[in-house]
Amino acid sequence: xxxxxxxxxxxxxxxxxxxxxxxxxxxxxxxxxxxxxxxxxxxxxxxxxxxxxxxxxxxxxxxxxxxxxxxxxxxxxxxxxxxxxxxxxxxxxxxxxxxxxxxxxxxxxxxxxxxxxxxxxxxxxxxxxxxxxxxxxxxxxxxxxxxxxxxxxx
Length: 154
Description:
Layout: E1 9-12, E2 19-22, E3 28-32, H1 35-41, E4 46-52, E5 56-60, E6 64-67, E7 72-76, E8 83-88, E9 93-97, E10 111-113, H2 133-143
Parallel strand pairs: 3-10
Antiparallel strand pairs: 1-2, 2-5, 3-4, 4-9, 6-7, 7-8, 8-9
């Protein structure tokens, strides 16, 4: 990534030890339901944004990597454990976990993969009863909570 280019999007891990920047928008945002992505994200599915390597850079720290298969590695922060990416070994792109972006609302999935492992209840999540964080904890409890996470900006 050229250092003179202004970042289009930024993000990083929970503790701030690892930060990244993109100089172009992702080429695709998808959801993967495969069992490997479920385990790597600790969630029912992973949401990933594809970025060509030339438009991506780690701007603070370097993630640790786990070779999750014969073709891929997954990057994560060794300090706080945040899952950050999937990369095909020797590939031309990196797939960043959308929750790691400072503005995850800009990462709208348009495609799903690994649907053979999609959990049956995933399609009904939008219809579940819901509460805001304030409704869940109440103002008194929420006033006592202090986040140790890095802010969603540099």
